[in-house]
TrEMBL record:
Natural source organism: Paenibacillus herberti
SMART domains, per the entry: HTH_ARAC, REC
GO molecular function: DNA-binding transcription factor activity; sequence-specific DNA binding
Domain of life where this protein originates: Bacteria
GO biological process: phosphorelay signal transduction system
Protein name, as recorded: DNA-binding response regulator
Amino acid sequence: MYNLLLVDDEPWILKDMEQIIDWQEAGFNIVAKANDVNIAESLLRRQRIDVIISDIRMPGKTGLDLLEFTNRVSPGTLVVFMSAYSDFTYAKQAIEKGCFNYLLKPVNTDELLQTLENCSQRLQERERERRFQQVYDQSVMLLEWIESDVTIRQIIDRITSTGVTFKLGEQYVFMTVKSPEALTEKDLQDIDGLLQSYRIDYFKCRNSPVKSTYLLSLPLLPATTLRKLYHEARRETSARSWEVGISSIGSADHGVHRLYQQSNRMADTSSLNGKSGIYRHRPNVNAAVPALKAQIGKATRVEHLEAAVYDIQKGVQRGRIHLSGLAELYNLFVISLSGLISPGTLGEEDFVTAQDLVIYYGKPQDLLEEMMLRIEEQKKKPGEINAVPIVEEITRDLDRMFAHRISLKEMAQKYYISPNYLSHLFKQEKGKSFINYLIHKRLEAAVSLLEKDISLYEVGKLVGYDDYAQFSKLFKKHLGVSPLEYKQRRKA
């Protein structure tokens, strides 16, 4: 129900307007009637008014004066004017100054109802925008805190300092929900309701259009209750083909960054096994990694690394290697292969992180294929080709399409060479790896966009990063400050 104020210097018009329709049925509550602009201004100062319906021409202050006052004191209030044909000049000025609509006297019932419906729609749009902005502000705030790796207790202190209610609990977990399609607040209402029914406090942030993360404050629940909660959550998420990643349990003094990374990575589990579901971080999530690291470290021939890649593939299939472990093994593989072929040529920029696997490779299988192609390339020892034209073509592609999803494998296929050889050529000509060049191009564009009045989420999306946390992390790694800090410094 929206609050409405009627303003007219003629008492009989006020009375007629009060009785012309069923205001409650239209969704409005007449909170007051005023026959003078000064009275209307006083009411606006004291209470929330959503809509004003006012005459334009009145003795003393006019409706235009009221509109200017409203724009200054209560800019969210919609103003609708009533005017006679002879007041058209006033009506034109009113529209120029931002009135929502005007009605001709005598007021037609159908036109009034249509105007009220339009007012309702506008107010609902504003409320959605307000809620979106609130979610956006909360998300940026929480993700910035996570990157600074404060403790859960510090996070809670900061959350409550913003006026949000969040109770201290006995234990805490991060939960990340990932959808095949864009997530809306409405999509998450069932999850929110389920958490509330078990009296679990939560603070929610939006990572990307398809991913949201919750910080949960868990009460001590009996085992039977936890099982019931798990089955209900599984039913809700499986019906939507959502993936849910849950971190290990932490206390108030645990750092948030590790727990957040755990839930975020577990929500990407389907990229490894192709199955959506609820995945909880386990201490042995990378159980096969230590032995494989030792195997790669002992390799003295390319064939030894080839055998290790097959074993890595088995470990992924059996659920004994997750994304973080796969990234670690890939980096060690690159070091070992480089050491066998041309020692001392590897730079840190050649390494990948677990998030790089999701962003740049699409599927971990693509990374395994690249490892095998690197090995095959070394076995074949291809002849030299003219690298300059190919690298320049690829560079032009990257400069033009950096905001799109681009992978080394796709570019290699386009130019009919192997990913390994393309990587070698690119670094040879540009002095930096393919991925590092792409990152720098994106961040260069991001710096330019941060000068404009665009939200941080939109900046990330416009340069190719749907996941704000990843965008913020890369920005800070390469530029020394987060996107939020950069924007704040520019404003200062």
